[in-house]
Fold each of these.
Amino acid sequence: MTPDVFLFWFLALTTVLAALGVIISANPIYSVLSLVMTMVGVAAIFVTLGAYFLAGVQLIVYAGAVLVLFVMVLMLFDLKHEIHAFTRGPVTGAIKIAAVGLLGGMIVGAIALSANSLMKTENNGIQTVIEGDSTKALGKLLFSQYLFGFEALGVLLLVVAVGAVALARAKGGTHAQH
Amino acid sequence: MGRDSFEIIVNGVKMIVIFLMMVQVVPILVWLERRGSAFIQNRFGPNRVGPLGLLQLLADAVKFLTKEEFFPEKGIKFLYYAAPVSALIPATLAFLAIPLGAPIKLDTFEMFGQTWGPYTFLIQGYEIGVGIVFILAVSSLAAYTILMAGWGSGNKYALLGALRASSQTISYELAMGLSIVGVILLYGTFNLTDMVTSQQGPLSFLFQGHTVTLGWLPNWGIFYQPLAALIFYAAAFAESNRLPFDLAEGEAELVAGFHVEYGGFKFNLFFIGEYGHCLVASALMVTFFFGGYQIPLITPDEMLVHVQGLMGAGNAAAIVNGLLHHVVFLIKMAVFVWIFIQVRWTLPRFRYDQLMDLGWKTMLPWALANTILTAALIYVAHT
């Protein structure tokens, strides 16, 4: 086993186990901390693929900013009711089984669809541009070929932010009366 | 011994040495801070143990190690013990990625009965192409240490302190990241070594095809990006939770904040982590805006010629040259660490809403303006 292979399996197993921890652990705090671990694992896998910039951005944006907010919000809530609602009861059980079924189907489907793709040698439409300075190449691609998608995502995020504020205000925000 | 394993060992030893350097500097900084604060406040400070009170550090270490082991009743064991250990990781990883001295270029030399080829030894834990992004990424993970400590302690003061600390960290991270964008535009690279290299020699830049040179000023980033330097340094204070931004610890309001339940060596680890952030911020300040390890107005290569004139050509001159630049870096860094200390004992604490207003309504727009202005200026200068 070469070091590269060992590293990949180590990181992949850590990431998948952490991702499993997100959905298995009953306490939302542990769920979010596992999600952080998943993000760090994905960033590390990006590093092994040579995409250093993506790895850094993954850590800054997801692990550094988005998930800190998740953790903070979760810590401020009284979670006893939620923990109870999401761990007991036949409806929750049915949802869980359905989710496991969906996930299993997705995994089987992904394996079945990608089984032969590693063997193919011809270039099937996906450009391989990462040569030399990958950050510069990424920037150029993002602001030329994929400009529309990039801008559309920006608008989408803005809509989500405005929507979240609107929803929170409609329910009275942090000063809601129960 | 093969070449590969030799190189792996050299790099491993180098990382351990730099890590130990960072950790060992902390007691000295604590002494400096206590003596300095006493000096500022017209007191004596620790002056009983050893000459100038320097052995106080040793006594403190013994005290930390022999304190009673304590675990809060309602705490969460895993998080409580994991937090102080992981407090050291972000600062250490970031510090290892900073170039601390000029690369030492060694010619072939004999050792262990073998000839070793020309070898460039970097005074740096590891060189990463996307240095800045890496440092921002690992230091953004520092918020989790604080949150883990706050949650794991099972204490309301600790939790409130942790929430304050992490919200402050992510607010100021934005201003910090945006202030660095101007620097990245200026040097056109993420690589810290390249940044230092492009700051060598006297101040000179290209403006619309003409080369402007000011011989009496070094070519430092501060002269191109003064606003970015100010915002970066101020945000660094907030990131490392130092006064005037130490709302997370606010003794008068929160007892001691997120580490209220920690005592002895576990508290000390948080302490080292905090000073580690100060050191990283000071080192980055030097790297981005004050020429890194370079002696003002002289490039490392010119200095090497001077050193060779004194010592004769050879590997010894190269090593002395590298160490000389390392010392220059440490001196520059010490200036900024001292400013950290001086500010802590000069300014009062902000109120929490003032802190958030400063971060979001003042520093963020100014950093954004600086980015746009820099981009426009670079466009004008290069046409």
Note: Strands of chain B lie at 101-106, 109-111, 114-116, 119-123, 202-207, 210-218.
Amino acid sequence: MLNIYGLTLIGVGLMAGLFTRVSLIGGMVLLAFYYLSHPPLPLLSYSMPSEGSYLIVNKTLIELFSMAVLLVFPTWHRIGIDRLLKIS
Amino acid sequence: MGMKDDKNKNTDKGDQKAIGPKVKMDRRDVLKGIATLPIFGAFAYSYYKRRSHEHLLKSNLRRGIGLSYDAPAPAYPSVARDNQIRLGIIGCGIRGTQLLRAAGFAHPAWMEEVKANAAVNRHDKRYEEYLAQEDLNVVITGVCDVFDVHAGTAMEAAVNSQKEGSSRSSVTQPKRYRHYQELIAADDVDAVIIATPDHWHGPMTIEAARHGKHVYVEKPLTWTVEETYEVRKVIKDSGVIFQLGHQGRQTESYIKAREAVEAGLLGNVSLIEVCTNRNDPNGAWVYPIHPDANPNTIDWKQFIGPAPWHDFSLERFFRWRCWWDYSTGLNGDLLTHEYDAVNQIMKVGIPHSAMSSGGIYFYKDGRTVPDTLQVAYEFPKKDLTMLYSATLSSGKYRPKLFMGHDACMEVSDRLVVTAEEQSTRYKNKIISGEIDPRYPIYNYTPGKKDVDAVTSATEQYFASRGLLYSYRDGKRVDTTYLHIAEWLDCIRSGQQPSCDIDQAFEEAMTAHMATISYHEKRMVFWDEDKELITL
């Protein structure tokens, strides 16, 4: 449940540019969890069918890095509700 | 969503007014601040469009196919189980124990085992499912087995009344019979379950029917061609209720497959491919030998019965399926299941010809029956060929495939129909894009009531497990229980069960044709008028 609400709130936040920094950090934490729940270690295979568990070319990891880029090069004080709220 | 956006805008404006005097906020700030909100509108609009498009496709497809996603109607009306039926069981080995359980008599040790297992593994539903079986109002009054240990376990199972929530008020102590003829002749036995080696199926069925006892016999119906005629005659003359143990008759996906064929979804089916793939000693009939088995605990002479004499052998007793002397090999054990499913779905009847080949290629343990076998059956009147392909030393899963000109149907515990790209029937729909030959046009997963164009990998993974089960009202049920229950209900109502003697006759002759062809190394034919297998 926490996952569902967390994901929804993060998604809304990122789309609206609202509390962007918190949403980005929250999103990165969740993605890190997803990545670590199927750690791409040798001799470890997960019993559920999944899209695969790759070391680097992994969509979860790539998404996580993209969010890190957004965090480092912030735009929310330019466009988004954060501008109205004067969050920078 | 649009309204919500407006609301947000209003609130934003309100905020702006409230904080207006303190913070300077110009028009540019507001515009840039709310610039992201239209994204929600665009997102909601495209989501709605996509959903309604998918919905339209699905409902068009659903109407166009003409085959419902409802669970099949019950094969027979439900019967009041007021009068108690007294059962005798002959043959209490691996299958006999399972049949007893299906009738509501699980062995206490098994109950404890599955109960303990369910406590640590919540995916193990065996205990729960056993408890969910309806009380069939039967008692076991007679038990017969030539091996003392097996007879003893069956006796323990027969008095087991620990089924929680059971309405069984009294426990009947069954009598152990040393000889099957005594059990059949007993006055307190109304019906018998026969789960002996193949060479005994025919003689015991005949004996039971002559005594007016209803019969549930394991497949195959018979061990020789000759006794098949006699079994059919005696069953018909006596009027007893007969059921052959092909529990696949109860599998929901098979029943839906029959509906799919009747609805003409497949077009002309020219080829049916059915298979057996096993890759473990147990699957190859190398069953464990009981430590207490010896000439004193086994009535060897009775075991041999109509079979050619052989000196006492524990291997032959426990692994009897490996010898033609007592068994019908892959043909009787596993081909019959596949054939019966095809006969249930397509009503093919006895084939015009059979040609089989194979050999003992892996289990060179002294067996006489092949471990690898292929049979080609021709049904010229139905314009189709049925191929059976089996190996006991490779486990690669192959579904039952019904290959039609218009669509191909895969039958397992699920049912998947995929249109053929060159189909005549679906030509216009394929051109219009309503049907995509890459995806199933009909995908029936029992217990699931919706159109399911592409099931997720996770669901497929779980659905492909456990062919032993069917579904009723969305609940998983043991097919053997359903099959036994159908037989008992038919005894009460006087109706014919789904795998009656006519179906059984067709099953037996079809299997015998494959066996004769294997031995003779040539094609054998079925003379429909004379009802004879000819070379």
Note: Chain A has a mean pLDDT of 83.
Amino acid sequence: MPALELESVCKRFGALSAIDGVSFAVEPGERVALVGPNGAGKTTLFNLISGELPPDSGTVRLGGRDVTRHTPEKMAREGLGRTFQRNSLFMESTVYENVRLAVQARAGVSFQMLRPITAYSRLGEETERVLELVRLSGRAGVRASELSYGEQRQLELGIALATGPRVLLLDEPTAGMSAQETGEMVAMLKELPGEITLLIVEHDMDVVGALARRILVLNFGRLIADGPLEEVRRNEEVLAAYLGVGEEVRDA
Amino acid sequence: MVEATKPGEKAGRFPVRAGTLAVLGALGALAVYPFFGTTYMIGVLTEIMILAIFALSLGFLMGYPKLISLGHAAFFGGGAYAAGIVAVRLEAANLFLTLVCALVFATLLAVLIGVLSLRNTGIYFLMITLALAQLVYVVAEQWTWLTGGTDGLVGIPYPELFGFFSFDRFSFYYLVLLLAGGAYFLLRLVTRSPFGHVLLGIGSNERRMRAIGYGTRVYKLAAFVLSGAVAGVAGALWAHYNGIVAPVDVNWPLSATALIMVIVGGAGTLVGPMLGAAVVWFLDTGLSSYTERSTMIMGAVFILFVFFARGGIAGIARSLWERFYARTGT
């Protein structure tokens, strides 16, 4: 059974067909890259999967269950995690508190009002484990707003990981990073537990090549290619989309 | 360095211990004051402490989940009317009865108003709380046989305890002090709990909270109801203290005054709004015995805080402390 499955998902914004009949399935533990030119609809597709936007038609399934039009919080509880293209952190809180809040989301203690949070040692242990995964253990006490951009990107990933997702959507995890930071992020993502299914939006083809064997190509809201990187690279339609060659030119 | 990164520590923040010491010091001073102070000042402090509980309840809402309500007088006044009606109409001024009735009534009212208003966010939330609270005001004004209408409900006595103890000005002061301290320490506990951290997360980044699995509305409702209940208790004390409840106690200017108390004192802390209540009382009611322009002075002070000290009194204290802390080293 696929970990994530989309069937003819559509979304229109007025006259613009942002996502046009997208279907694909991702197997558990698979690592898939979603690429496409700017404005192709990659982030919109993520928002449709994660429940931030309701699709107009089509079906989204998570582990075989129909989760179409679930709210974001319900999707998270169903095992879907996501990061945002632009960091979405708790800026005034420390790195540790950021991650702990995400750990707490599935710990079932969030209505406890009369004991300090530090009394819940389970939260602490899990938080430290996640901090190690995203290599921020040494920065635990620092306020999120005081981190470097690359570290904030790591924290962005840490928050998503801390919810214990089975499927993780990563929206440009290396966006705006230096070459060195990108290398570290790729190494970090490679070390993630094998059972986590990853769907990654990424522009950097080296990153795509390092993380995913299978590539989905989105253009004008339609899926125009789905296959191994070498194959997709030779795909005519993909080349046209990336080289800016219009449909009419190709058809002529 | 390793120490600084230990669980839950808030590196470089306002030291918790200094804040706690300040609160305990203030409580101690207030506890011994009646033995030296004048009867008049005991009354003033009683009034301020009741308003401080009210400001605290709104400050909790504005500082943690960042919900700005302009209808908080509904819970304060609602609690005051509930206590007053029990004391006058049922002739039962038992402290536990009036307090519990005020608490229950304010809680129910907060559930109702909260469910309706929390469907919206930001300015719309604020406007709906205002509109619903004004409905409560209209009911208080019109339902004359129950509430006394525009004349108010008069003749509310100090509370008593099962016939063997009746509060007077002096002992009522201590009752209010006890409840003000209790409300502060209760909400302090809540803000440090897992629930309190959820509220802080909602105030900081609600979108991300939902993305990591929190159904934020139910947490906001819980905070709203808790805040309303605390305001209701303050209202009950207000009714006993003044001996009268009138429609002004549910009207929107009181909600606005509470908002000003929170902003002047400093949202985001619990001590701040309570201090704000004292400052606003002295600038507004206190100065009004000396000048007719007290409201204007209050307005000017409020504007100064909004322009130059967004963190309020608590924010000023924090930055002074941090400067001192930086100079003496860690």
Note: The beta strands of chain A are 4-13, 16-26, 31-35, 57-62, 65-66, 80-82, 167-171, 197-201, 214-219, 222-228.
Amino acid sequence: MKNNSVKTIVAIGIGAALFFVLGRFVAIPSPVPNTNISIQYGLLAFMAAMFGPAAGALIGLIGHALIDFSYGWGIWWSWVIASAVFGLLIGLVSKRLSIADGVFGKKDIVTFNIFQLVAHAIAWGVIAPVLDIVMYAEPANKVFMQGLVGGLSNIVTTAIVGTLLCVAYASARPKKGSLKQEK
Amino acid sequence: MRNLFNYIDRPSPIHRLTGATKLVCLLLWSFAAMLTYDTRLLALLPLLSMGLFMLSRIRLRDVRFMLGFTAVFMVLNNLLVFLFSPQHGVTLFGTRHELFSLGGRYVVTAEQLFYHLNLVLKYLASIPIVLLFVCTTNPSEFAASLNRVGVKYSVAYSVALALRYIPDIQREYHDISQAQQARGIEMTRRQSLFKRLRSAAAILIPLILSSMDRIETISNAMSLRGFGKNKKRTWYMGRRFTGWDFAAMALCLALLLAALALNRINGGRFWNPFAA
């Protein structure tokens, strides 16, 4: 398994770079003015489903922290940690899926989306607002409102972008057992 | 290629500190600013960071854009806090001094204004120091510093890889996006939301597939060179600590201790001038 751990390290690095580029430079306008859709969470969900919880958590942590760094507005730790928690939670789905073997059917789509729903709900509905209150002593109804809006839009983007990515990658992989030895 | 992380190379005492020192200082400082709501300490920190800025020879012109960004963010956040919870200060400080009313439940109190002052000071205490860190730390040295402060080198190496590949992936994203747009994909406001997300996926899929290949190539190259075989590794950009490094870390540790001490003295995170 030695090779695998090197692969995870590289996946974290490249995943964080992708997360950064998507989060920083790819602006898709949303119906609400001045808010952009963050498709990086779709990517994070996909990477975590491929490489597991540790990779998911670190991609979220490093990617989000780098975005905050590059804006220079200070690191908003509570939301950075929420990103990491989302990556960690959705990484737990990786044991139930085998996207790398080219398998991602209807049942897997449902599993993936249930996991992402729960992970987003915990990350933005609980972790981010609670940390905002603990760290910055902000009023509860304001942070829960922000978490709700952010969480809902993230759930929609992850459902569409994340699922499409998993389907596309699985179909591009050779199926496990697709080769047979000639007798 | 535009400089992403705004590193500005100028000879100054701050630049001469090692990256690891600056990282430790940043963490200690951030924790101090995060923990305390004592107005006196929160007022001291921005003054101190202003002094550090002068010492680092970073000019206002260099960071004007980012400071503007921060200011907008700060104003918006304050407005939101007031809109959602106009009496937050009253619940925090336990007294009520009404000043004037804006109609309905929006009665402006001295406590609320004081809470907003604290909030603004908190931004001023915690944000410029990050800016200073970003402007004075060479990104290549950053990964080495992470390892130095105790982060496992495999994780530090992931950060180094991310920093190394951000420009490549950015270029690739740009190429794919241009190619797909030439084939008629649109991501502007004229499309419906669902279509916009689908077109985003159309760009993402080639990007992800090529990135997965990239992961394969890089990890094979690293395994072939025996990465991860030893418990430790050295860094090309790593530097030794000097006396100044220890002095800087001691100063920031003192700030953190002051924040902790004030929390105890005030019997809570807030300094309450209304109690007397």
Note: The first helix of chain A runs from residue 2 to 25.
